[in-house]
């Protein structure tokens, strides 16, 4: 985390949520791209009995499977990371404002509050 001791809290929260979104998009893109490429079939032939054998086209590949998985799951991972980091930063700003000091316990309490909120909602990252 960057040092935001002089920035107002709304800017810090938005900055951290944006950084979390970018981190989730990059990490989720890499993860789900590799996962989609590994789990995609090499060749998918649809309606093969309707197309003559010499005119059949391969309708799928590892690259297409990777692109499909990346488009399907990477935005969800990015949104989850943005929500998590935004909530963590909001708790950190609130605790820093309440305690009027910036030490390691702010991070501990904000992490506990974030984990409690996400668990109470039934969603753990």
From TrEMBL:
One Gene Ontology MF term: protein transmembrane transporter activity
Membrane topology (UniProt): Multi-pass membrane protein
Top-level lineage group: Eukaryota
A Pfam cross-reference name: Tim17
Main location: mitochondrion
Subcellular location: Mitochondrion inner membrane
Keyword Membrane: yes
Keyword tags: Membrane, Mitochondrion, Mitochondrion inner membrane, Protein transport, Translocation, Transmembrane, Transmembrane helix, Transport
Entry GO terms, CC: TIM23 mitochondrial import inner membrane translocase complex
GO biological process: protein import into mitochondrial matrix
Ranges that cross the membrane: none
Family: Belongs to the Tim17/Tim22/Tim23 family.
Protein name: Mitochondrial import inner membrane translocase subunit TIM22
Protein's organism: Rhizoctonia solani
Upper lineage: Eukaryota, Fungi, Dikarya, Basidiomycota, Agaricomycotina
């Amino acid at each position: 985390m960057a040092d935001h001791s002089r920035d107002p809290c709304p800017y810090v929260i938005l900055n951290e949520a944006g950084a979390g979104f970018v981190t989730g998009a990059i990490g989720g893109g890499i993860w789900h791209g590799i996962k989609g490429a590994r789990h995609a079939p090499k060749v998918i032939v649809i309606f093969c009995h309707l197309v003559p054998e010499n005119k059949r086209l391969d309708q799928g590949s590892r690259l297409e499977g990777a692109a499909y998985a990346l488009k399907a799951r990477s935005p969800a991972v990015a949104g989850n990371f943005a929500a998590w980091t935004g909530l963590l930063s909001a708790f950190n700003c609130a605790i820093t404002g309440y305690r009027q000091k910036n030490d390691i316990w702010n991070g501990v309490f904000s992490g506990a509050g974030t984990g409690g909120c996400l668990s109470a909602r039934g969603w753990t990252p």
